[in-house]
Amino acid sequence: MLLRNVPPHNLDAEQAVLGGVLIKPSILDKLGIELRRVDFYDPSHQMIWDAMVGLWRENKPVDLITLATALTAAGQLEKAGGPAYLGQLAGCILSAANTLHHAGIMRAMSKRRSMAVMGRRIIEIAYDPERDPAEFVSIAQTASDAVLKDRLDTHGETPDEFLDPYTAYLEKLEESGGGGVSTPFWKLNGLIRSFMPGEMIVVGARPSHGKTALALTFAEHAIGLGHPTGIFSLEMGRHQLLNRMFSSGAGVAAQRFRDGKFSDEDWSRIYDHCQRMKQMPLRIYDKPARKPSDIRAAYAYELV
After folding, report:
1. Dihedral sign for Cα atoms in the order 232, 233, 237, 242
2. What CATH number does residue 231 fall under?
3. Which pTM was predicted?
4. Domain check: are 131 and 224 in the same one?
5. What digits encode the pLDDT tens for the residues 251-271?
6. Phi, psi (5° rounding) for residue 150?
7. Can you give the C-alpha Rg of the chain in angstroms?
8. Residues β-bridged to residue 230
9. Most C-beta atoms within 10 A of its C-beta, which of 65, 147, 148, 267?
């Protein structure tokens, strides 16, 4: 039996994963869920990964500049190797095509480290005369089952890891007065307070019962509050959406957008609303068959 003092790891794979993210940040949509900081052996790589995931979770671009800024804000830039090392990571690979493969190598090494920890614990229990042999058998069986069924979990975080970010979130929430985006309906605000970052709100009703009209009302209210807003429509074209928005925003009867019988006053209101809309932080996406990753990418790079 060969015992090593250095835990299993592969620094080249870790560098390839970090470099791959810098080349193709969208890959975080998959890696951000599958990998955790404990899967990285090198402490500097753990810091860099935390910063990347933090930017990803806040829907911010992940590049050399934003990454260095995030590490500087956390007081970890020099500990993570400095700007020169970040640049080295970005240049260590030419393509992100094998990033998922390298992530698999990292996960395998992480599991081996977990197995080593379990093995040491089993040995300690076996040599402890105060321990019941039945406890040893139970722990050994659990560990072996986890290895055989690939259920070694390295994704959990300790209180030391998750409490500081949580209290920082609460402090930011207090400073912002609760955060989120309110609705134009005060009774609804009394129930849900506001739409909070990270939430997915589903509006459900039977056909032709006003779901689109309600969603557009929410969007127009958010725009009025100065929030960058994107409207993604998988069925209705932009002209149909604009008909509804101009009917409510310009105060023109909805029927006029069907029969085209606009009065001079209608045209005046339409042109006035055009000028106001040109200043709005709004983007409309009416391309059909969009994937969730397309929507996320559009949000991250055009709306944030």
Report:
1. negative
2. 3.40.50.300
3. 0.49
4. no
5. 999 999 999 999 999 999 999
6. 55, 45
7. 27
8. 283
9. 147
